[in-house]
From TrEMBL:
It comes from Limnohabitans lacus. Pfam families: NTP_transf_3 (PF12804). This is Nucleotidyltransferase family protein. Residues 17-181 form the MobA-like NTP transferase domain. PANTHER family: MOLYBDENUM COFACTOR CYTIDYLYLTRANSFERASE. Keywords: Magnesium.
Length: 223
């Protein structure tokens, strides 16, 4: 049963998620950003808890650089782990690996960046609700905050199939560029969708703006 039939029958739409955590984080001093902690809880674990709290149970985490260190810190999480053998090929390659590993009965997919510190279960639930309420014929929902694109994004099974049917360079961004009329730019005032941390300056700015202090685990701290 496809997503449209499921909605017509009043049945729940099964949502899966891909968390992208394969980057080298060169601007962060070559340390895995997803292991930054808030009150001792890593960003990766916070994202998984947010998904679980919003009812998303089928989660794929795509690792690359620092795969062993990341997995070691979170091996208890109930997720499917994948390692991108060529993470420097770009985010598209990690997304494609994640989509290939999706459960075949998943009707829609959330794609999350592992370095977003503020995303919580309510943010995920709100995005899922926006996806269900999206106008026809749109197939992908992207939050827009103050005119700027945010994350996560969410799209239906047909979009995942189209991405995978494309060339190796085809990812979510390229699909959106090719299908602008099928993208619902969901306007939100929630700054959580725009917050990520790419550099030490971003960590400082987040602390000044929110009072939240990101810290590295002990073995990744530097003088």
């Amino acid at each position: 049963m496809n997503e449209n039939h499921a909605k017509a029958e009043g049945l729940p739409v099964k949502v899966a998620a891909v968390i992208l955590a394969a980057g080298s984080a060169s601007r962060m001093g070559l340390r895995p950003k997803c292991l930054l902690e808030i009150d001792g809880v890593s960003l990766l674990r916070r994202q998984c808890l947010a998904l679980s709290g919003a009812g998303v149970q089928d989660v794929v985490v795509v690792l690359g650089h620092y795969a062993q260190r990341i997995h070691q810190s979170a091996r208890d999480l109930p997720v499917h782990w994948l390692t991108n053998p060529d993470p420097d090929e770009g985010q598209e390659s990690s997304l494609r690996l994640g989509l290939q590993a999706m459960a075949p009965d998943a009707d829609a997919t959330l794609v999350l960046l592992a370095d977003q510190p503020l995303i919580d279960a309510q943010d995920i639930a709100d995005l899922i609700h926006a996806y269900h309420q999206r106008p026809a014929p749109t197939q992908l929902v992207r939050p827009v905050v103050e005119g700027l694109p945010g994350n996560p994004v969410m799209f239906g099974r047909s979009v995942a199939q189209q991405i995978l049917a494309g060339p190796p360079t085809m990812g979510g961004r390229q699909w959106q560029q090719q299908h602008p009329q099928q993208v619902h730019r969901w306007v939100s005032a929630n700054a959580h969708y725009r917050a990520d941390v790419d550099s030490p300056e971003d960590i400082q700015a987040l602390a000044q703006r929110t009072g939240l202090h990101l810290r590295w685990p002990e073995d990744l701290q530097r003088d």
